[in-house]
Amino acid sequence: MPYKKLTKEQMNAVEYDDNLLLTACPGSGKTKTLVSKLAYIIENKDRLLIGKRKVIALTYTNIAADTITERLMSYGISDKSVWVGTIHSFCLQWIIKPNINLVPRLSKGYVIIDEHEKEKLINDLKEKYDFGLYDNIITSLSINYQYEYLDKTSNHYKLVDEYHQYLRKNKYIDFELILNISYRLLNEYSGMCGSLAALIHHVLIDEYQDTSTIQYEILRFIIEKGKSKITLIGDQEQAIYTGLGAEIKNKEELIDYFKLERLEDMALTGCFRSSQRIIDFYKKYQDGGIDIQSKSLLKDFKSVVHIETTIDKSQLSNYIHEIIQSHLDSGLSEKEIVILCPSWFDVMQRSRELDILDKDYSIDGLVVSPIPKSNNNMWLDLVSLALTEPSIENYLKRKMLANTLSEHLKDCCIFDTVLGVKGILKAVNRLDVSVDQSIETWIEENVREFCSSLSINIDSNMLAMLNLNSLLESTRERINKYDMQYRASDLERFFGKSKGIKITTCHSTKGDEYDIVICTGLLEGKIPHWNDVYVGTQHANYVARRLLYVIGSRARKHLYMISERGHQTKKRVNYKITPQL
Prior knowledge:
The protein has 581 residues and is α/β, with parallel strands linked by helices.
């Protein structure tokens, strides 16, 4: 089992069988400890009297959930007592779907709006109501189902109102509405809270510092019943989503909020990732001032920590290329290098510029997929399966996708029970759809051929058709928006295993680690973002320090922090270097 190689600190956290607040500094083995704790609970489920109750692990992203699930499966653990996913997936699976008859809006079918489609819709509405493309409009509802903007005559109110009318008319819900609906159900039906508390033995929350107010409220309805244990794992120094509604609670606040009798406080203190030189750089952005010591084999490695402020943005990609090439020439692998950018727009630009350079390495940047990779459309699982070659290497991935697709089919009332993984994979492996055609046609033919092989009449199932039409429409819109000329034969490059030097956003890299980290756009207005700057100096300083802490702590060996010149505001004022840098 995985816990046999843990440190004493990690093992203490794994074996502790009560409410736990576990603070984990960067590189201290947080994910390994979380996976080991899940494994330990399952191995001791008889002693812990879990019975048919569930152990729930909540993560911030689907990628993190998949990583935990894959690690458990690699250890031979696929116990049905364990459920791993995001808070949104948890709400859908355990609150909304079992009580769908109590939600008139959803009872006749619904589709979760694709984030790309949502972005396009909001941008169109911004243009209609005379807002700038980068103006921040809050479309989420309050905990009491109210808009952020109360003046019905204002353009802010009109935009948000039209957005929600569009969702309702088209049977859409977004991720914020998943939380709102779940909160309302738990708030109005106290018996539901008791049932969930009786069902759930233990809730483990990864990156707890990123939990929002409404997410805390949903969890409170369950935990305060006193029947479920809770483990919160994270690091307040890495709280980079406070500007998006995340709320940080200390030990005393958590005890009071969840009505806990006790909450043990533990910490993982050593860093097994980075050199001490790297650690000494990023720990100066702490607020808590915790001393972090390297326990890595790289402890005394002569790391480069370079702050660059003289390069013009027109030469930025060439400069990055030189850094990359120098490390590749020294024998470093492509997969150990990451380029970080302030936004997805910057990621796309950097991906395009580096992709056209004369180079011998590959780029794993944001080349937009023609099919939106929303994890909540049932037919996306089928698309992913059809594009994932059956092999020993892909076995766990295909098994996970087949499991999810089977659950979706059951939710659509296509089958009374969950169809086995073997039956799903057998039907997928029989698919024989030509790739020499348009992507939309390829998707529809795969779905229909799959359904036909399982004797499913998809046309008579409203929810299955809603999901299919939504996937086709969002794919069509994305292809048109970016003027894509792809055919179905091009799809494998978007759904295969990522290769090459990673390019992503600073926020999205949390949880990752690389030998070389190259961060660009370290400019006030980008990091911290203008939205944070406008709130006030104290807030902007807090956000920037948290983000710089996360960026620096991703690196194992070398760190390059770049504040390129040449960026200007709409009023042609030059951007300044991030003050906190």
